[in-house]
Amino acid sequence: MADGCGSGRGPPCPGAGAALRRWEQLRRRAAAPWARGLLAAVAGLGLFYAVLRVPLRLRDGLAAVTVFLSALTPKFYFALTVTSSFISGLIFVFEWWHFRKYGTSFIEQVSVSHLRPLIGGVENSPPAPAAFSAGENEANRQNMPECKMWRNPLNLFRGAEYSRYMWVTGKEPLTYYDMNLSAQDHQNFFTCDTDSLRPSDTVMQKAWRERNPQARIKAAYQALELNNDCATAYVLLAEEEATTIVDAERYFKQALKAGEMIYRKSQNCHSQSPQHEAQLRRDTNVLVYVKRRLAMCARKLGRIRESVKMMRDLMKEFPLLSMLNIHENLLEALLELQAYADVQAVLAKYDDISLPKSAAICYTAALLKARAVSERFSPETAFKRGLSTAEINAVEAIHRAVEFNPHVPKDIAEGIPQLVTNPKL
């Protein structure tokens, strides 16, 4: 086969040689001083032209925009308003759907997770559930923002009620935010600096930080192997493993027996050191929590009067320990008994301006005030003479409750006003 032109074996192509010679001549001319000066002059003239041209183009552009805006008709502004409202409505519907499903705002999540790091912000929000690791260090938890939210004293049992709901409906009843709040409560109530003195408490300190339910249950059994009288281990099993209220009550009774014994020991030596005082506070929290949960079990199993007695005794025994809001559980039981006079007595003590409000107190107060005026209320009479003082107080109580927490079931929010207008309900 004959060697081709430019293959490296035959003679070079004449056209290629001529192109190379022309390129070499142009390169020598460009390297000359006069050529460099000419190029610099051309570049300067181009820059000068751009500097003078840009303001002129901006002025022409502003003039064109002014003419365009003056030529717009009201129909354009109407169409623009309708279009923007429609887009805003779509965004609102999507936000509502995302919040109902995931318990968080999509726009807020995207802005915090993706946009804030790009502009130099520090990411302090809790990660998504899938990205959370059980071995997250203490420094990351301290960087999380403080949650400004009142605790819910009517929280259900996680195994016997929340898990059963998930089995029946296939929906997760607790959001990651709810789980994070309850984990913080468990660590505050059931752990202290002296956990290292008791091996079972050391295991439970790690158990409350676990995110996997099976890992928490396994750790509770490990703590019971080290100490059969570990009250917090029985508490965890009652909350997590028990699938019925009966099983939960059985675990809580075991926790009560162990908790009372540990509480008496802590009382005898609490004055020896600050560490022993912290241990007594923790053991007191455990005992109060167990007794409150037993009272809630009794109410859910139909023993309402027994539940009321247990709560009243607990409030008398520990009058200063109000972090669990036992009085709100008492209101729930008294309402079920229809003991409205007793409910009013509890509200008179706890519905005070100096105490933190809650939806339970606000709605219960509104219910009682509405009930007091519903029997004699007549819309026709009220239209003629106006509302009386008691009726005005009932309406104000309803507005106060809805303003405090509008996120309540619709039948409750609408049922109280209907009770005022229709006493037969």
Automatic annotation (TrEMBL):
The keyword Transmembrane helix applies. Keywords: Membrane, Transmembrane, Transmembrane helix. The keyword Transmembrane applies. GO terms for cellular component: membrane. It is a multi-pass membrane protein. InterPro entries: ST7, TPR-like_helical_dom_sf. It is found in: Membrane. The chain crosses the membrane at residues 37-56, 76-97. It comes from the Eukaryota. Belongs to the ST7 family. This is Suppressor of tumorigenicity 7 protein-like. It comes from Callipepla squamata.
